[in-house]
Amino acid sequence: MTCPCTLAVLAAGWSALAYFSYKLLNALYNILYPFAIAAPKDLKKLAGGAKWAVVTGSTDGIGKSYAVELARRGFNIVLISRTQSKLDEVKQEILQKTPNVEVRTISFDFTNANLADYEEKIVKQLNGVDVGVLVNNVGMSFEYPDRFDKISGGTKSLTDITVINTVPVTVLTAEILKQMVPRNAGVIINLASAASYHQMRYWSIYSATKKFVTHLTHILSKEFDKTGIVFQVVCPMLVATKMSKAKAAFFSPGPEAFVKQALRSVGHVSETTGCLSHELQANVFALPGLLIDSVMDKGNLAIRNRALKKKEAKKE
Ligand SMILES: NC(=O)c1ccc[n+]([C@@H]2O[C@H](COP(=O)([O-])OP(=O)(O)OC[C@H]3O[C@@H](n4cnc5c(N)ncnc54)[C@H](OP(=O)(O)O)[C@@H]3O)[C@@H](O)[C@H]2O)c1
């Protein structure tokens, strides 16, 4: 007869093997399925035939790339961003690349959380178009990481980041759902960040507001799971844009390459880092929980020290 101790050890061994096999299969699925195996879904079909896509923060980086790529797939585009001259430039660029689509622009500063202004400047214009895809991309980060009480720009910066990263996604999703629900179709893509995966020291409000976006998107996916509306939250690591100041490389793709991959995954996964190299980082090269804080602290403090030195040098 096998002794109970041996049975317990065997059970623990099999449980561990089952757990690690599940983790491995899950990682492989996340890395390969949406970006290399699954056939991209027809976004026009998911949009239920609606002809327009709305992208916030669409004059640069990831948002601009979503706008260009969605126009390439035949959607008319509403660009919503802060600076009218940049909106005009991006509109011309899209029309040159895809002359068959229509492009409209709305200039709005998303640090403004006033609902009457949203209604007057955005909602009224959007009520006149059938929106099949909404990309809630606009977002803001710190100039450099630092402790909460020392953030560059102080309370104003903390408030602006909180507003930009949470209010537009809330208001625009609520408004656009009013037309997607009766149509029983549509795609809503929300840009969060891998910063939402951890309670990131020195990125307080950025990390916390991105967690808000992730959490909200998952809740909406559940609330609308009996409808044809598709929600996706995208949690990138580094993408080479003005915000990140990163150079384009395998692990920090340029926004165009990033968005092409991210759009491939729509309708297949409700949460993604957005591209294969970021999924590799999240699933294979992820640090064990205990190490994350210390490794990230070192990196973040180095970024902060370099930024402070630059600031000092400018003053002299
Ligand atoms: N880049 C990354 O590594 C990374 C990683 C994770 C998550 N993300 C998220 O991805 C999204 C896009 O980031 P990105 O790197 O592409 O940013 P980006 O290159 O800095 O572009 C930001 C865009 O947002 C617009 N914008 C900024 N402040 C605004 C305001 N107050 N009102 C209206 N529009 C405003 C900018 O318009 P103007 O031209 O007028 O400034 C620009 O079009 C953000 O939500 C960000 O948190 C980025």
TrEMBL record:
InterPro entries in UniProt: NAD(P)-bd_dom_sf (IPR036291), Sc_DH/Rdtase_CS (IPR020904), SDR_fam (IPR002347)
One matching Pfam family: adh_short
Gene3D superfamilies associated with the record: NAD(P)-binding Rossmann-like Domain
Oxidoreductase found in the keyword field: yes
SUPFAM superfamilies in the cross-refs: NAD(P)-binding Rossmann-fold domains (SSF51735)
Position of the signal peptide: none
Protein's name according to its UniProt entry: Uncharacterized protein
Organism: Acrobeloides nanus
